[in-house]
Design brief:
The chain is an alpha+beta fold. The protein contains nine helices and eight strands. The model has no long low-confidence stretch (mean pLDDT 91). Helix 4 packs across helix 7. It has two domains: 131 residues, Jelly Rolls; 93 residues, Orthogonal Bundle (Arc Repressor Mutant, subunit A), CATH 1.10.10.
């Protein structure tokens, strides 16, 4: 999130939370959301209309209209971990965002009058830790093993091999993914590979433009056109390459 300042949470939360973030007062309403498998909770700190939003994972690049002159504060969960904290069904949030009265008892109205970002982070982290301490009955270990396999292979892995490594059937793995990630393991693998290609283009250490044919082969695409179709599927323009 280029418009955000992001922070790692305290150590106990890092297996579950990717970052806690906030913005300054928004100057431009255009914000691009790119698929990554994550779920966010967002507090809109608008004096006239404070609200709390849940953003599910997305399957295509989209734009969200932010409120100019307003600050935003939120938490981004690691893939597959939001279900430990969010009441709503993760699968029902996919490609959507909804307004909720509060999150773990915290509301946007509360943060409006709770000092600045350091104080906000303390309150949010305390609420997250209390939820963890209460003990969820959901076992996220199988799905986390699957996610780790997909991530370390940059998405270039067959679903049947992931399921086998988790001692699950493909149908069981798909059900768990829908419940805890919001999408199927096959789609998550495609998104992970797509994001890997984007990371290559964003690498500041590289002075040379990537070659699409070489990237396609390296990341397990059948050919260059297969890579380009994936970008079209995720509604994202392909960065300049050769």
């Amino acid at each position: 999130m280029d418009i955000c300042q992001e922070y790692l949470p305290q150590t106990a939360l890092r297996p579950f939370v990717e970052s806690i973030w906030h913005t300054a007062l928004i100057e431009s309403s255009r914000f691009e959301i790119i698929p990554d498998g994550c779920v966010d909770v967002c507090f809109v700190l608008s004096p006239s209309k404070p609200r709390t939003l849940l953003f599910g994972t997305t399957t295509r690049t989209s734009e969200y209209a932010m409120e100019v002159g307003v600050a935003y504060f939120g938490v981004r969960f690691r893939v597959g971990k939001a279900s430990l904290f969010v009441r709503e069904r993760i699968s029902e949030l996919t490609d959507a965002h909804i307004t909720t009265p509060d999150f773990l008892g915290l509301s946007a109205e509360r943060f409006l009058y709770a000092g600045g970002p350091p104080a906000w982070r303390v309150q949010l982290e305390n609420a997250l830790l209390l939820t963890l301490g209460a003990g969820s009955q959901e076992d996220v270990r199988p799905i986390q093993h699957a996610i780790n396999l997909i991530d370390t292979s940059y998405g270039d892995i067959k679903v049947r091999d992931v399921a086998s490594s988790c001692n699950l059937s493909e149908r069981q793995l798909e059900r768990l993914f829908l419940e805890q990630v919001g999408i199927t393991p096959k789609l998550y693998a495609r998104i992970r590979r797509f994001r890997s290609i984007l990371n290559v283009f964003a690498d500041p250490a590289s002075d040379e433009k990537p070659r699409l044919a070489e990237l396609a082969a390296e990341y397990g695409y059948v050919d260059q056109s297969h890579l380009m179709r994936d970008f079209a599927t995720f509604s994202h323009s392909l960065p300049t390459a050769i």
